Predict the 3D structure of the following.
Amino acid sequence: MLKEQPRILVIRLSSLGDIALTLPVYARLKARWPQGKISVLVKPVFVELLRGQPGVDEVLAWEGWRRTVSEIRRRRFELLVDLHGSLRSRMLSLWSRAGRRVRYPKSILSRRGWVWFGKRGGDRRHTLERYLAVLPRLGVFDPQTPYRFLVVQTAFLGDAALTLPLLKALREGFPRSQITVLSASETAGVFQNSRTADQVWSIRKRRNRLYWLALPIWIWRIRRQKFSAALLPHRSHFTALLAYGGGVPYRVGFASSAWPRLLSEAVSFDWKTHDSERNLSLLYPLLPKASREVSWRWHSDPERLRRWSENLRKVPGNPSGPRVAIAPGSAWRTKRWFPGRFAELARRLQQEQGVQILWIGSIRDVPIVREIVAAMDDSTSHREPWNMLSVAGKTENLQDLVALLSLCQLLITNDSGPMHIAAGVGTPVLALFGPTTRELGFFPQGPRSRVLEATLACRPCSLHGGRRCPEGHFLCMRLITVDEVSRAAGELLRHESLVALG
């Protein structure tokens, strides 16, 4: 079991979008262990971006094998959380000497199988969901996330009745989760009538000395359900083996239980406390006060916000209109919508809705933005300066991007890193997906965001995009029209205006 306030290392050695999606993990770890120290290992380019973010106490940069392994060992982490799942992160985890190590379910084979063979099986959850799936194994739970809980109480009628307060509190604490109770056949009615459980399993124990022979069957049944956690008010050997053998990743029971070493968390059993209160104490590791409400947002530096806000007010045009950021670039060519269509979209948004356009991107996207602006000038007799500003390649670091996106009412983007930053600062996102799809896990989360994509049998053609369309027609992007994007952008902007009014 972990220390009360452990030293934690999180590894994510990848791109901007991946780094953006890890922020909720740090917030929830910090909520669970407020005094624990959370360190994050990233590529050097992302060090400044993560400094000062909620839940992050220290940011380490990858400096080669020798120096990085030495630094990790010197800090003596009690817990290592691998959110990368690559050969490099696995070797770092192996050599870290951390007391406990966990790794997120990358599901790379199932995703590649879908891309290569069209096989639609396996784990296609959002990447953030897979990151967060690691946390229940550590006893970190979010009340609004749906989990599968198993409660084992195969004792007598009175014990069953005194377990009901625990079930009620579990239901109230995790309203979206599914609760399964395993009881003795004689007491199953107690749980069925209480309406606190979604399903009740029963096992014949009374007058049945051979019930142990059914252990492999019950272990197989529990494994199939893939429970997130088990609460074990019954303290028998049979119960401990059920949860452990059934592969439940987080198991909470009493310290006085048979085989407490099979538990993830052992709660003190106080004979002076009423049995219903003792049972309720099993819920405390899942719902510590600090973690009942965890919100996460990207932290924007106030000085950067002030500076960029002043700069944007100087842009010619209507400073009071809605501000729309557009990210037309991508590291992958097939992920890019056409510059000509971006130009027509920007022209329409300005002339029909009076928006201010903010072009964003890296230094590699500067030629794309120039091409778009030139197309806007060539396609109209408009003589006044366009109400827009290009900051592509001009932001000092990624904190500038965080500040800029927090000042916008909408981001229109290809499938690229900025959409996750925008979602993190609370800015609605309109994302254009071509070769990739939502089911691969990298779509903008939140009810105020939307994905536009064409329904084609050839999608997805790759995990990340490519240099050219394998089919040669590029229909995945051609079928996304300016009319469709303009209409969706208008709907999102009108919704934001209504939200702002009240």
Summary: Residues 482-501 form the longest helix (20 residues). The radius of gyration is 26 Å. Residues 7-138 form a domain with the Rossmann fold fold (CATH 3.40.50.2000).
